[in-house]
Design goal:
This protein is an alpha/beta fold. It folds into 2 domains: about 190 residues, Isopropylmalate Dehydrogenase (3-Layer(aba) Sandwich), CATH 3.40.718; about 150 residues, Isopropylmalate Dehydrogenase. Helix content is about 40%, strand content about 15%. It contains 11 helices and 12 strands. It has a 12-stranded mixed sheet, sandwiched between helices. Helix 8 links the parallel strand 8 and strand 9. About 0% of the residues have low confidence.
Length: about 350
């Protein structure tokens, strides 16, 4: 089994967290991997991280030898498929540049297409800079929307997942799905509907069923309110009464083990204690802040509803830390591990 990793923005921490985590990723999962990016930039990152990795350019995943035939030594070999414009090597670190945006986008598209063709079992993405992507002429708010469009799906969601540990009591981990994605706060009220809340609840239920496996129990799902104190019976807003609660009732009617809406400042405390396996958040920061406080460097970002597996680190390009050799590799390692688990479960 081979997993694909996209390099992310060349000016950010993507290249160095890939090479920094590579040995442990392969050792822990016992699978093979290929990077979609630029060999020269990866080699620079390998030198920065003081690894003995050797970057080998390949044209296709077909060139990767089966594990039993591969030659292993103390020197790490990282296969890389070149993507994007050659001038990406000239982009200064920590800067927003259309060239790095174009290279990042091209790597994503190549990896998606290889996954759709069955050449790789999953895609793990390093962080992109959204403005660089847009400067390159690709007008998307993030990875999630690129994957959804390329895969031809309309029913999808962004989710954060944190495995057992970091004070997460459930042995199956904790997942948070978001009803609205990368959008201005003023836009979220029009995007929260009974249908959208119900759709996200179904997607996260399907995901957690896979993570729970053959235990036979249903995932326990809690739903966040939108307004303070869950609206206080309409005093602080009526979305809970007219949208969120009816969506929960419909979800119960189709067999989900779901409850809510609960005040957003309390539900994650209960989830952390193991009362819920998954939480439906109404907007980006409502879910992200809480889960990252519980385990920033182990959180994994995923796109639900795709015909392929996609996981990602749960942080950004970190231009302020880029190319200093200090970037944390924990989220990349966990994203690779979760992608492997999901691929094997298929």
């Amino acid at each position: 089994m081979i997993l694909g990793i996209t390099m992310g923005d060349a000016a950010g921490i993507g290249p160095e967290i890939i090479v920094g985590a590579w040995r442990e990723m392969i050792r822990q999962t016992q699978v093979q991997a290929v990077v979609y990016g630029h060999p020269e930039i990866l080699q620079r990152a390998a030198l920065l991280r003081h690894t003995n990795a050797v970057i080998t350019e390949i044209q296709s995943v077909d060139e990767i030898l089966p594990k039993g035939e591969a030659s292993f030594s103390d020197v790490l070999t990282i296969p890389c498929i070149r993507c994007g414009v050659e001038s990406v090597t000239q982009v200064p670190c920590g800067t927003v540049d259309a060239r790095s945006g174009d290279a990042a986008y091209q790597a994503i598209i190549r990896a998606i297409d290889d996954a759709k063709a069955g050449m790789i079992a999953a895609v793990v993405t390093a962080p992109i800079h959204k403005n660089a992507i847009n400067l390159a002429g690709y007008h998307y708010p993030g990875h999630t929307e690129i994957f959804a469009e390329r895969c031809g799906v309309d029913d999808f969601a962004m989710m954060l997942y944190l495995g057992c540990g970091d004070n997460i009591c459930s042995k199956d981990g904790l997942a948070v799905v978001h009803v609205t994605l990368h959008t201005a706060m003023k836009n979220i009220f029009g995007q929260i509907t009974i249908e959208s809340v119900l759709a996200k609840a179904k997607l996260i239920n399907d995901f957690m069923q896979r993570m729970i496996g053959l235990s036979g129990r249903q995932p326990r799902i809690g739903v966040c309110s939108l307004n303070p104190h869950a609206g206080e019976d309409g005093l602080f807003g009526t979305e809970e009464m007219h949208i969120i609660r009816p969506a929960v009732q419909q979800a119960v009617a189709v067999g989900l083990n779901i409850a809510g809406p609960f005040p957003a400042d309390a539900i994650m405390v209960d989830a952390q204690k193991g009362m819920f396996d998954a939480v439906v958040a109404m907007f980006h920061d409502q879910g992200h802040i809480a889960l990252k406080l519980l385990g920033m460097h182990r959180a994994v970002n995923m796109t639900l509803g795709l015909p392929i597996i996609r996981t990602s680190v749960a942080h950004g390009t970190a231009f302020d830390k880029a190319w200093q050799g200090i970037a944390e590799t924990g989220s990349m390692l966990e994203a690779f591990r979760v992608a492997t688990k999901l691929a094997l479960s298929r």
